[in-house]
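Hi Y.,

Following your request, here is the sequence exactly as I used it, all 157 residues.
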Amino acid sequence: MKQTVLALLLFGWSVVSVAVDMPLKGLDGTQSKLSDYRGKWVVVNYWATWCPPCIEEMPELQAFHDQHAESKAVVLGINTEVLDNDMIEAFLDDYFITYPNFVNGPVTQSPLGSIPGLPTTFLVSPEGTTEARQVGPLTKQMIENFIENWEAKRNNK
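Below is the corresponding structure, written out as tokens. Let me know if you'd prefer a different format.
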């Protein structure tokens, strides 16, 4: 039941916008951009170490990333705390999270849209447009279903 409700929320928050770019600051201090991932679906997940729903969804995000990173999609985590980067890296290691993570600090708005709570996840199309936002945890299957439905709808136009 919970998965069905969240799937409906994911589709209910669907938004279409123009291509968006934003800077990404790596835990090691390196700078990159969201547009560096153009050509793939990008799951941008805002999270914090103190957030139980964030921790709950991390294995799902990791499984999605592991299955799709070499082909059509990646997961990018963005930590929203004021913490030492070594502490964030240790936390990610404790939970076996290997998808790319970046730091941003506390935020309620991003170039992708509003962040009313954590976790908040945006799905960015291969063209760089924000296609959906989910506030609250999601699953690998929810992401895959959204992408499959989006691509089917686009191919039927």
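The two ends are 32 Å apart (CA to CA).

Thanks again,
Q.
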